[in-house]
Amino acid sequence: MAVPTPPFTEEHEELRESVRRFVTERLRPHADAWEAAHHFPDSVFGELAEHGFLGLKYPEALGGQGGDHLHDAVFTEELARCGSGGLAAGIGAHIGIATPPVFKFGTDDQHERYLRPAIRGEKIAALAITEPDAGSDVASLRTQATKVDGGWAVNGSKTFITNGVRADFYVTAVKTTGEGGHHGISFLIVDKQDAVRASALEKMGWHASDTGEIAFEDAFVPDENLLGRENEGFGLIMANFQWERLLMSLGAVAGMQVAWERTVSYVQERQAFGRSVSGFQVVRHKLADIATRIHASRCVTYDALRRFAEGEDAVKEVTMAKLVTQRTAFEVMDDCLQLHGGAGYMREYEIERMARDARLGPIGGGTDEIMKEILGKALAI
Ligand SMILES: Cc1cc2nc3c(=O)[nH]c(=O)nc-3n(C[C@H](O)[C@H](O)[C@H](O)COP(=O)(O)OP(=O)(O)OC[C@H]3O[C@@H](n4cnc5c(N)ncnc54)[C@H](O)[C@@H]3O)c2cc1C
């Protein structure tokens, strides 16, 4: 067992071993096929649930494992070894962004009807905030929920939603008043139904993930599916952002580590001009540079994780971790691809997939530019 690096303990390292075994034996062998099919089976959620991985941070009373965010952090790091950014994203959206608001803001009844089945892998969740005309400027969202007998009728559209096609329920941001800005936003748990039409988008990477475009056409949502307080949904959006950004940082660092390991063994084996490619000083310097960037990214991320786990208001540190790790991951993947030569451009060596998948990082979960805006405020500049 590896010596734990704070904030992790031996217990976390034991979990790491069991997640790594699962990822190696149950996910990794299928990753290429799922990437090629642009789909992974829903049954993956059931398998994850059998091992308790969908409820690591949730209380045992709700069917979870009674752990905390650090357990999910370990899971996220190991999931980065699965061989498919899209697979990691689909699982991550369910565990990391769609179910946390149900746990934090949900009623007992909502926990029973949505969280427990989600932890059991029987219901798949998506978080639906982004719209065609409202991404970074989230407060300008327009999907409208109008009061009807016994609930709401929802009309509008969402886009770029992870698990958007397969989801059984959508944790959805809507407007519940005619007011502009961040007032009058609420969250509804919208069940899959005929009035919710979803289709998958073609994209650069994350191929195994069903990034969906969703149209709500008078979709009925009963009163009891209001999540949190009416017209106070903006706070709910903000509540999970720190955790989402930390998860993205952890995933990026772990992904860079995988790319580094593969690249080192490739350049050690590859021969050119009568010696292994790693024998060239310029290659060794490049590898030293990559290792340094990975270490720096890990230090920033673990510092933010430790602060977050201890309950600190770590907005500044989490934002910095998201900002530095996502761009660095894409640059590191590109450097690793270059060190593979022509093989780097081929599907077989996987580094091209890692580079494509990494490109999402500086966009998703808040763009680099938005991270800098947040830092501008946090640093009072
Ligand atoms: C593969 C994928 C999966 C996703 N999954 C989900 C999901 O599950 N759920 C969900 O709700 N959303 C999801 N998203 C949406 C994602 O969060 C948004 O794409 C992201 O927040 C950016 O919004 P946008 O695409 O509308 O870009 P825009 O907001 O249109 O930004 C366009 C450009 O303008 C810049 N910009 C905007 N405002 C400013 C500003 N104030 N200052 C400087 N520059 C600015 C941006 O940084 C960017 O470079 C996903 C996106 C992708 C691509």
General description of the model:
The protein is of the alpha+beta class and 381 residues long. The chain folds into 3 domains: 10-124, Acyl-CoA dehydrogenase/oxidase, N-terminal domain (Butyryl-Coa Dehydrogenase, subunit A, domain 1, Orthogonal Bundle); 127-234, Butyryl-CoA Dehydrogenase, subunit A, domain 2 (Beta Barrel), CATH 2.40.110.10; 240-378, Butyryl-CoA Dehydrogenase, subunit A, domain 3 (Up-down Bundle). The protein is 49% helix and 15% strand. The strands form 3 sheets. Strands 1-4-5-8 form a 4-stranded mixed sheet. A hairpin with a 2-residue loop joins β2 (144-148) and β3. α4 runs parallel beside α8 and α9 (281-309) packs antiparallel against α10 (315-339). It is globular, with a radius of gyration of 21 Å. The mean pLDDT is 97. The chain binds flavin-adenine dinucleotide. Flavin-adenine dinucleotide binds next to β1, β3 and α12.
From the structure above, extract its key features.
4-stranded mixed beta sheet, Butyryl-CoA Dehydrogenase, subunit A, domain 3, 15% strand, alpha+beta, 10 strands, binds flavin-adenine dinucleotide, Butyryl-CoA Dehydrogenase, subunit A, domain 2, Butyryl-Coa Dehydrogenase, subunit A, domain 1, 12 helices, 381 residues, 4-stranded antiparallel beta sheet
